[in-house]
Give the backbone structure.
Amino acid sequence: MKGEKITVRFVSYFFGLFLMTIGIALSVKSNLGVSPVSSIPYTATCVWGFEMGKATIVFHAVLVLIQIILLRKNFRIINLLQIIVGIIFGYFTTFCNWGVAEIFPGSVSNLFVRVAMILVSTVFIALGIFFYMPANIMPLAGEGVMMAISFVVKIKMHRAKILFDVTMVTVSLVTCIFLLHGMGSVGAGTIMAAILVGINLGVLNKFFGAWRDSLLGIGKEGL
């Protein structure tokens, strides 16, 4: 792989992570429910008052531990770098939550605006995945767990994702119901994110996938 392509891939990778945290921040501000993978960190924020960025870092570290337990001797030491990526992702989350709070100070009561926030958040999350995953640098710990489940249970990746998302949402929902007596991090926005992120990503890949792949040097000889 040529040096300039490595640089471009790293830029695409971290740019994608940042875009994802913008989407997460918008979904948090909407107060209609966050995406499944963010539901547990946000639950920790709602229930125990942890700052969401720090809760995200701890959550990613726990997900790496789960991978170690699932994979045992098949766990690759290099995947410990997912913790470093989780720290960066956590700080991105803190920054974007602050930025969105500055743009929309106080609670947003207008339902139309809140729904619009969710819709825009799904676009940002899809854009983030669009740029971050094909760069093929290091998966987030959430994707790492999905791959571990797929490997251990011998199921296809998309089924592992469904299992992972359902588990995250269920844990968050049960925790919020018992401790907050409400749905907390789970709501209509969670369902919308689960459906729309994939649809948006499909549209992005259809119209801009070839351009991105060319930019990243994917599929060319010598890489």
Q: What stands out?
A: The first helix runs from residue 3 to 30.
